[in-house]
Amino acid sequence: MLEPHSYAAGQWVAPARDAAILNSPVTGAAIARAGGAALDFQGMIDWATSRGGPALRAMTFHERAKMLKALAMYIDGRKEELYALNPLTGATRKDGWIDIDGGIGTMFVFASKGRREMPDSHVYLDGEIEQLSRGGTFLGQHIALPLHGVAVHINAFNFPVWGMLEKLAPALLAGVPCIVKPATQTSFLTEACVRIMMDSGLLPEGAVQLIIGRTGDLLSRLGPQDVVSFTGSARTALALRSMPNIIENGTRFIAEQDSLNASIMGLDVTPDCPEFDLFIREATTELTTKAGQKCTAIRRMIVPDAMMDPVIGALSARLEKTTIGDPEAEGVRMGALVSATQKADVLEMAALIGTETTRVYGDPDNFDTQGADPTHGFLPPMLFRCDDPDAAKQVHSTEAFGPVSTILPYRDTAHAAALANRGQGSLVASVITNDPQIARDITLASAHWHGRLYFNNRTSAKEATGHGSPLPHMTHGGPGRAGGGEEMGGIRGVLHYMQRTAIQGSPDILTAICGVWVSGAKEKTGPCHPFQRTFHEIEIGETITTDPRKVTLEDIEHFAHFTGDAFYAHMDEDAAKANPFFPGRVAHGYLLLSFAAGLFVQPDPGPVLANTGLNALTFQQPVSPDDEIHVRLTAKRKTRRTDEYGEVRWNATLYNQRGDQVAEYELLTMVAYSR
Ligand code: NDP
């Protein structure tokens, strides 16, 4: 018998004597005792905020990202321990792959995004400098720093590993300690993963704690610096988000809840198109994976009038081939629902849907389970047909959280979008079409009701990730009924655990706070040319100003012939004069860039390894023949990249002989840590 323990204030806590007994959804046998332990919830909050928070905040974003990568690698090395428990949740190995490998993969993505898109420091810059004054002495910059509270993650039963890791990764990257509360029914799998994380020794003390069972008065103890991220039913979300202290303190509350996701077959699709098969394939996957217990599963299939019968026929033929049974048995494609209780709930909801539809596939009282006892968690995929989707109500409002979907007919694209929108807010809607205009029409009519729109067709079919797969790069959440929350979405998901603050002040103040040189801030002179200095020697603000160079007409003509760029503004005085931008013939912008490099580069071998690009190039004033240009080059931002070198970004500004700025850009170089 499994006994998942809580992990509170550094101690593993066993279930109480009167813990809940969890039964296998496959055999009905008792498999675990869980919950009931008396936990010191204030002690857990204190442990997180006094130990985990400070330890995480002492690390830079890159250090936290490295920790996540090491953690993901460690879990990956021991994932078979998780796969061994996975069938006890009713899930097949393929289902488990989404949960276990999907969770680990999500952590890897956040680790990599943290290294690439966040600084190797403690202050995250959100957006660019805002020019708040004419003279440039008063500027603005949005920054984000981690909240000092605790993140409470309440997860649903269907993804005991992914559900935890997709919330932990952004929170830990932000620098916020977490208390994880998995759904009790599958908590043994979450606990196994937390044990692996603790064994790794990679997490600072207090960074992650675990509650098996109820949360007691934990939520009523939360304050303004805390975050609740919840996945589950709309009913529980409402109860928790309306707790007085959550409202009074403005405690952040992120919710993912029920969702009547739709998949639309485009009007262009007929049975002889590749998109028809694609629709059937995606619909089958969503019905059978995790036995339909996915928050993103397709609950409503919206198809052109004329496609109702062909879709029902093709889907039924495909579902006929789905082998249902013990998730560990050879050849089984669809396992059991998570529990007999969940099965009863699904049947109750399916009965409601049945009041305005006809069941066209799947009989819950008569289906094959390959010898497994069908009275436990098993159900067949069930398809309903609704011929009057405009009059229907239950179809658009009742979520049967299992292998249940309804097929609805539509007249035209506007009607299809209107039906999809009847779900009152969903996590995802997919559109299978090869017609870009249909895709655009549905987007304009429908995007405001859906957290994600997924388009698939013959071009993307091979590489598309699937209607039901939330990706760490993209936001997962949806408006209205879907909870109004947003998770993941790359660094956006990290910002949910941070406070955005608008910083206003002089260039020197902003440079000191942000660790990035801001135009107008003090410049420093180094002991030698900065290209001869190592990454660590180069100081933010270190500047060189070059000698001037005259740009002659011969230079311009030579450049034009040499490169083939004989645009009239450089070569034809009359035509150039007629152009409102130019006083006459002017130098090529690219010629100026080349001369700039010739002015500021120090040619000897040294720590500068490569020029990797330039950003935000603007040509601000024309340069005429015989003008003189010079360059100011300032070290703007440094980011460690590998164990051998880091990136230095330079502000390069070009001036003419009158001191007017003529061009500006950010130059990217890789610089070694040693000579
Ligand atoms: P619940 O809302 O009952 O449970 C979700 C989580 O909340 C579980 O961890 C549960 O713990 C916890 N919980 C429940 N009550 C409280 C409380 N008072 N205080 C703190 N935590 C609480 O949803 P279910 O998991 O039972 O699923 C029911 C329905 O939710 C599904 O049928 C489906 O409609 C929807 N759902 C939606 C998902 C989505 O992502 N959109 C995912 C999964 C479900 P415990 O298990 O201990 O009760």
TrEMBL record:
What residue spans carry the region label Disordered? Answer: 462-483
Q: Which GO terms describe its molecular function?
A: oxidoreductase activity, acting on the aldehyde or oxo group of donors, NAD or NADP as acceptor
Keywords from the named record:
Oxidoreductase
Q: Which residues form a coiled coil?
A: none
Q: Which InterPro entries match?
A: Ald_DH/histidinol_DH, Ald_DH_C, Ald_DH_N, Aldehyde_DH_dom, HotDog_dom_sf, MaoC-like_dom, PaaN-DH
Please give the Pfam families that the UniProt record associates with this protein: Aldedh, MaoC_dehydratas
Q: Fetch the SUPFAM superfamilies from UniProt.
A: ALDH-like, Thioesterase/thiol ester dehydrase-isomerase
Q: Which residues form the Aldehyde dehydrogenase domain?
A: 12-501
Domain MaoC-like, residue spans:
539-649
This protein's name: Phenylacetic acid degradation bifunctional protein PaaZ
Q: Which organism is it from?
A: Profundibacter amoris
